[in-house]
Automatic annotation (TrEMBL), chains A, B:
This is D-serine deaminase, pyridoxal phosphate-dependent. Belongs to the DSD1 family. One of its GO terms (biological process) is D-serine catabolic process. One of its GO terms (molecular function) is D-serine ammonia-lyase activity. It holds the Pfam family D-ser_dehydrat. SUPFAM superfamilies: PLP-binding barrel. It comes from Salinimicrobium sediminis. Residues 249-356 form the D-serine dehydratase-like domain. Keywords: Lyase. The keyword Lyase applies.
Amino acid sequence: MLDIIRPTLLLSQSICKDNIRKMVRKAERHGLQLIPHFKTHQSARVGDWFKEAGVTAVTVTSVKMAEYFAEHGWNDITIAFPFNILEIDGLNTLASRVNLRIFVNSIETTVILKQKLKTPVRFYIEIDVGDGRSGVEATNFGQIKRILESVGNNPHLNFDGFYSHPGHTYNAKSPGEVEEISEKVVEKLRILKQHFKEEFSDLKIGMGDTPSCSLSENFDGVDNIHPGNFVFYDLVQHSLGANRLEEIAICLAVPIVAVHPERSEAIIHSGWVHQGKDSLRDSEGNIHYGFVVQLNQNGWSEPIPGAKVIKLSQEHGVLSLPGEVIQSIKVGDILGIMPVHACATAVMMGEIWTLEGERLEMMPG
Amino acid sequence: MLDIIRPTLLLSQSICKDNIRKMVRKAERHGLQLIPHFKTHQSARVGDWFKEAGVTAVTVTSVKMAEYFAEHGWNDITIAFPFNILEIDGLNTLASRVNLRIFVNSIETTVILKQKLKTPVRFYIEIDVGDGRSGVEATNFGQIKRILESVGNNPHLNFDGFYSHPGHTYNAKSPGEVEEISEKVVEKLRILKQHFKEEFSDLKIGMGDTPSCSLSENFDGVDNIHPGNFVFYDLVQHSLGANRLEEIAICLAVPIVAVHPERSEAIIHSGWVHQGKDSLRDSEGNIHYGFVVQLNQNGWSEPIPGAKVIKLSQEHGVLSLPGEVIQSIKVGDILGIMPVHACATAVMMGEIWTLEGERLEMMPG
């Protein structure tokens, strides 16, 4: 084990690589291209594990993240964000080196891209399949047609198809509901594909949030999936039924700095600057910021029943612990926190350590 | 103005320096030493402005932050966190270079410090004045006495007094309630001082959260105050009555990447990786993640009435905007977000730009 003296984000390579392999196999089984979203891990080294599993294309959220993964050998990158036309110079530079896909969601964006693009890129139109965040509504064929017409035959903008992120699966109350939402999304996308297929015979349909990609078995008409979180999984995904607890690949190791037996609490060095601020409600409706585990030679234990992070400030965390645990711990011990939201914990920590002691670099903040 | 193409944290030097000067003057008026908490800005350059205003001692949350400010010329540093004994090596190194104050909140911590400290440090006992987070309860004279006895006459551990963070002022529903809580805290600390003054005639009493330090005029018996957030202020502080909107010194400039007139919304490149995830409720009880302002030659405008950040994901933000604003903005425009929680926004962004175009370095992540 590592010599841990301050909050340290641990990763089980075996769990992580299993998560990658399982999603690769699922994509293969359904004839889908897996274009994983790398916003969760933001690590070139974790990216290498995807390469080893046969993945050749990735999804990112920003030009900056595209630059990072381009530097680390990725040549097929989708920037899954309504393109920020102010970053046109960065896009031109990067597009001259690697194959980029961007989102063109409006005529205004098309007009500026046609003026300023110097290198060909491929583009998706992002489709709002019910999440209500960004993209054109799935049934708004007229608007999609107008965007495509605004592009015309511009040699720098090549239409690739439709991309969708069904983020509303995160509001589901059960795994069954995730699947129901996912079914509806697939149906919307199938109709959309049908409509535009005649004119664009090669168009691709991309979808995929981690809950759908983990739980659904219906990808009828879908060509690409781009889940991200599954690489680590977390308690939010677990609450949706997307993963088992033993599939969570990261754990935040934290020092105990005070024990308060009189209130069955301990103070840890781990605040929102380490974990992120995401919370969940337990079965009694109380908010918590993570389950507590024991670290061991093989990584970490199952969650200690009844043990939770109940308060978070900038650098302090407060654990509620059962009496027998309170009696057995002392200042200077290390416990583990199973994260509520892996993307947030990874971003906040900015570096990850494997159980074997390898430091996994992440994209600089 | 700067050439802004992606989320950029702007700082008004004049507002920030005014905030510093006002708190310095308030401390002087009450005969207090201001030992500001630097966890909000984490910037050596902003630290310099405190030096220019006459401040000579600072408060931080971690050994790492102490190291950063020691490197930038600070020689009197309080690490305001239950001391993490696993970081004893870092403490020994740093204590050989600068004057450190640490927290000793338990006998377990004393025992280990007595074994392992190689250089003298001063220490506070942290007092829980009602926040229920860390420290010894203010009325638990017995426990305080036992900790002091466990230290004994150890030449490496010199008792300096009591430190308290009345974080429960953040639960107040009005400025009056902040003052009431603060009054009670001051009274508790006065009794504590009275009790231990005989044995320790030089003991100091430290308190201070930004709401109390901004609103209260009663610091009877207090020696030091250590607020942090006031350097920037934010919407949380404003909701407590601690500052006026025009005293907020930072603003997150964000590009518009999509406009959705049909739902009076726009999408910005600004998610929780930029702003942090803190929210407030507006007068109708709806959650929001910041007010929206126009940028101008002098910085930024008052909040646009009715304009708010209503959703946040990792890199996307969704603005709700009044019809006339929706009509006047377009993709590629820049708007400003007045932050809910300045500490979070500063930490997430990791760098700050003055309106004059100076980049203010922050502690590396």
